[in-house]
Amino acid sequence: MSLFSFFSKRSSAPVARERLQILLAHERSVIGGRSDLVATLQEEILAVIAKHIAVDREKVQVKLDRGDSVSTLEVDIEIPTPGAGPARLAMRG
Amino acid sequence: MAKVLVVTSGKGGVGKTTSTAALGAALAQSGETVVVVDFDVGLRNLDLVMGAERRVVFDLINVVQGDAKLPQALIRDKRVETLSLLAASQTRDKDALTMEGVSRVIGELKEKFDWVICDSPAGIEKGAVLAMRHADAAIVVTNPEVSSVRDSDRIIGLLDSKTERAEKGERVEKHLLLTRYDHGRAERGEMLKTDDVLEILSIPLLGIIPESEEVLRASNMGAPITLNAPASAPARAYFDAVKRLKGESVEMSVPSDKKGIFAKLFGRRVA
Fold first, then answer.
1. How far is CA A78 from each of CA A38, A82, B88, B95, B166, rounded to the nearest angstrom?
2. What pTM did the predictor assign?
3. Residues of chain A in Cβ contact (below 8 Å) with chain B
4. 20 to 30 A from B3, CA-CA: which of A26, B34, B210, B245?
């Protein structure tokens, strides 16, 4: 066993840590319990918009991106404008 | 006011049952009244680890279905009189557990005990969800190993969505119990360190249970490790974890059986 392979064999924990961080960032956005939160937000935002403007359900997109220190909630709503093309209202926060 | 705990993990074989027995016994040894409840219907093992396998007459399913009264099914521990066990059924199907039935039994247990500790089955199916359903606090048992950490993350998501508290918009306290920890290997970069797991899962640390031969010895004997070998490193770690559960502030350490009394002391604060 060379000196290099001796050292590389020892440091497998940082690899595990990095793999987990990448994997879980993805899984949390797709299947995590928080997806329920996104679904709830989508429904409630849709209800609020629908009070004032007729919107297509499909045109309201809510996305939660979890970052290391900050997570962002992206809300994208497409509103039909009479006569013109559709207007879009996008929020990030 | 009784406190309901769930010992959960997602992954199997990480030490849920061992930890349920050890924490339950340690709490009872400190004078609290405790019941440990096995939710692993069809694969019960808490009775065996507690050394009560030959004393099970009625079980959780019998009580849930009204075939037995709760006092008939409770098995009083022979070593610690404030400790009781409610076994799972070995023959019935887990579908015999109903949401209403479990809710009623937990309610009755809360009137009799200071602590109700639910030993969850592995997985994320009905049994695991029912075990966590009424929990005020969860103990997430995790090994410093990739698949265990991933499954714990999944379970934390369920605790935040499927529990009664979560549905009411309340918080379920979550505590990380890191088990089978090998301090030497973690220091050599061969195993995830406590800090790595904490950073990934971001829930407060309840304790670090070192890998030890004493754990298998205790289960061979049918005694929680805090009773079978109270001076051993894992038992001391469980006693410390129990103090933290009761709100005491205890400095975090990884107890060791080797050389000194404490291998390493970390100046970490825990919730």
1. 18, 13, 53, 45, 32
2. 0.79
3. 10-14, 16-17, 19-21, 23-24, 27-28, 31-34, 36-37
4. B210
